[in-house]
Amino acid sequence: MADIISCPSGLTGRIRGMRVREERVLADRKLAKSGGQVDELLSACWEDLLEAGPYAFADGRVDWGQVLQGDRFYALLQVRVLTYGPEYAFAVPCQNAACRARIDWELDLTQLPVRALSDTSRAAFMAGNRFETTLPDSGTRVRFKLLTGEDERRLPQLQRAAPEKLLSSVLAYRVQDVDGVDARDKRRFLEDLSLRDADFLVDEFDAVDCGVDTTLEVECPECLMRQEVELPFDRGFFLPGTQRTTRRRERSTSSPV
């Protein structure tokens, strides 16, 4: 089954659901380590480019390394919907330390809010992917970029190298230059930012970006606490059969003899 989709930036094409041969992509540990699974999966399921949107693909074929993170996730979501349908069931632990019950939740993936790339952001992206803002506390102007597939591959490596500096690693990667700050001192400048400036900068990233809102509100069936969680995006997202097997095993072991 194939369908035509239009991504948040305007990138439009025909996609299909996954076939059995795509399971090797999901099981490839080398691809998982290099961050290449998403590119391989999208390349396999994208059948025809109808509109390039803001991208300048050299040979008329989609280069997923150039594609914005928001477009990539949206396309993956549609591949999953075409493969298994829009319903997605998952489980998360309750965030209430006094409870920690298991929350089983189900949602319709087609109902997740989607934010389109604005005309202003599209123009800035096409003009070199440079965005500008002024930090409220320091009054300093900084320029930053939107993340693409190439960035998606590199960021986890940087985060693994310095997990204790997760926020500063992300900021240093996305911020291209800072007024009055030498390139060699950029990381130090960002680590000395007030948390207000850091939060503002992350909000600015989100304000000009596009994509799917994956923050969900769920309710614990035990303590009734409502809490925000991120949509689980792991191997089970594309191979729900493994989740069913796990749930059956858990029910089996918990059943009275």
Give an overview of the whole structure.
InterPro entries: Baseplate_phage_T4-like (IPR024364). The chain has 257 residues and is of the alpha+beta class. It folds into two domains: 156 residues, no CATH class; 92 residues, rbstp2171 (2-Layer Sandwich), CATH 3.30.2220. The strands form five sheets. It has a three-stranded antiparallel β-sheet with strand order 1-2-3. Strands 7-8-9 form a three-stranded antiparallel β-sheet. Helix 3 crosses helix 4. The chain is globular. 19% of the residues are buried. The mean pLDDT is 88.
Class by alpha and beta content? alpha+beta
Distance between the termini: 44 Å
Tally of discrete structural domains: 2
Helix content: 40-55%
Q: Rough shape?
A: globular
Q: In sequence order, what are the helices and strands, one letter per element? A: EEHHHEHEEEHEEHHEHHEEEHH
Number of helices: 11
Unreliable spans: none
- Rounded Rg: 21 Å
Oligomer class: single chain
Query: Taking all residues together, what is the mean pLDDT?
Result: 88
Quick tags:
257 residues; rbstp2171; 2 domains; three-stranded antiparallel sheet
What is shown here, in short?
41% of the residues lie in helices and 22% in strands. It is an alpha+beta fold and 257 residues long. The radius of gyration is 21 Å and the shape is globular.
